Structure formats: structure tokens, C-alpha cells
Amino acid sequence: MPAQGAGPDDSAQVVAIGGDGAAYHTVRTPEGSWSDFAPITDNVGNSVQVADVSIAANRDDSAQILVTGRR
Length: 71
Hints:
single chain, mainly beta, two-stranded antiparallel sheet, 46% strand, elongated
């Protein structure tokens, strides 16, 4: 299930699990345009395989993403 966090400037961020089991992220600007979904990767560029995702928006328009990995 996708998770969404809204910023104080009317921006939004969405994180979701793709059909391949990887986590993906997109951002909506305050003007309403969306970025393409991009994979969330580890520190060497590998897609992160997950079982669940959540997101929380911060007052400074950043976000914290929490994923539960697969075993």
C-alpha cells in the first residue's frame, strides 16, 4: 500500500512498493507537478526490496521514509 506525506508548502511525497517488490518515491511540487517514480536504492545503487513502507513529512519540507525489509 502506498504511503503519503504532505509538506506545509502544499508539496507531497509518496512512497510505494512496485510490482517487483522494490520501494519507489515521487514528489509533488507546491505548483502541482509530479516527478517520475524513482527507485529507492542502497548506498551502492541497488534497489531496496521491501515488505512495507511509511513516510512522515517534516516542517522543513523534508521527509523521513521507513521501510521494512524482506527476509
